[in-house]
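Retro notes, item 3 of 5
We never archived the inputs for the adenosine-5'-diphosphate complex last cycle. Fixing that now. Sequence and ligand:
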Amino acid sequence: MEWEIVIGLEVHVQLSTESKLFSGASTRFGAAPNTQACAVDLAMPGTLPVPNEQAFRYAIMFGLAMNAEISKRSVFERKNYFYPDLPKGYQTTQLEQPIVGAGEVEIHLEDGGSKKVRLHHAHLEEDAGKSLHEDFHGMSGIDLNRAGTPLIEIVSEPDMRSAAEAVAYLRKIHSIVTYLGISDGDMSQGSLRCDANVSVRLKGEEKLGTRTELKNINSFRFVERAIKVEAERQIDILEDGGSIEQETRLYDADKNETRSMRSKEVANDYRYFPCPDLLPVVLTEEYIEQLRKELPELPDTKAERFQSEFNLSAYDADQLTQDRDSAEYFETVCKSCGEPKLAANWITGELAALLNRKEISIAESPVSATQLAGLITRIKDNTISSKIAKQVFEAICEGEGSADDIIEKRGLKQVSDTGAIEKMVDEVIAASDAQVDNYRRADESKRPKMMGYFVGQIMKASKGQANPQMINKILKEKLDTLL
Ligand code: ADP
Ligand code: MG
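Structure as it came back at the time:
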């Protein structure tokens, strides 16, 4: 039987405002527990919330970037439930009239394809506090610093059909919010969190299957793995004639499995009602249009510009615009060396591998954009071959200085001196009687391939420094005189 996976994501993004959604308390990460929660955040009697305009600006910017409708009138509601990290007894959120309505976004897949994912809506809400389980034997601690931090919850339509598509969508959201500068997008600190709704159905079936909601997925890699194992679990159950229960499940990354947390709650359970402490927020057209004008260049537009301005392939342009830092790095390298294609190759190849290995971001790269540009300049002007360039690159990583310093210090300059190369060619030919004999007797069409042996020997003799084009030319001439 052929199964189709259906996924809808709910992504929570912490907005990087200075203060909370309804109070002046600081949102800074890492403060001592319970030093940044004020009376408003805890809804002490007699306090009143005041909406933070910056949070609205950020939410609207996000909506505009998602080609979504912006609501001229939005309303806050109370979602009532009890949990130790929610001292108010309700979360202030939006339900009926969220700030951002329907929209859509294009995602790019690894095989080069792309597709549109529809946004159902995005709403503003406050974050809860945090329960701490690790440092307290048999007890839990509560840190309320996070209570009241502004979030947007971004709800997609169930448009994704594989774990890879879900990851591509999440990456796109990540790249949009960081380009906009409305969130630091740091998943490890919980600034961007994702719940995945997963169901399966037989291919061709129209009706959606029963879904489960996966919580606690805190990295791109885990999103992919959690969806895969959950879909497998559901398929196994259905193939055995069972049925799926609609429930909330927890992803356990250590065991790579999902397990039941609770049966799915429905909106009614929360007794939602409009918050009597907050007026509806009404926006003017001019306010929204002003924000639209101020939007920075977004990833898709930047990728198109990279294709037209630098002649990059769609794939390279997409790779280089996924995050703002990479795009900036690329543009700096290009400006300084004027070689977009080489710059793109080095950044998506050698540099990406290095950053991956060291598990660091491009902003922390040990090779600066200027240093890479210096290296590329020396490849382009034939001072070094691309093979030697890899050696120089490693040395730059190790902090040995600029490409020029390293080439000079290590004597790596490519040998392009005709006399010197001729001498090496002669020596290798003289020491390779058998190979020369084979070459002579071989069919004309086989000869180019047979030159490889000689080129290899000459390269070795020159420690990789002889100019490959020149070797080929001189070698061919010399061998041909022996025919
Ligand atoms: P709730 O009201 O319980 O939060 P929603 O209808 O708002 O449920 O959907 C929440 C998320 O679940 C959305 O991202 C939506 O796309 C997704 N979703 C809904 N039904 C399914 C399904 N059958 N399979 C996969 N995802 C689904
Ligand atoms: Mg929901």
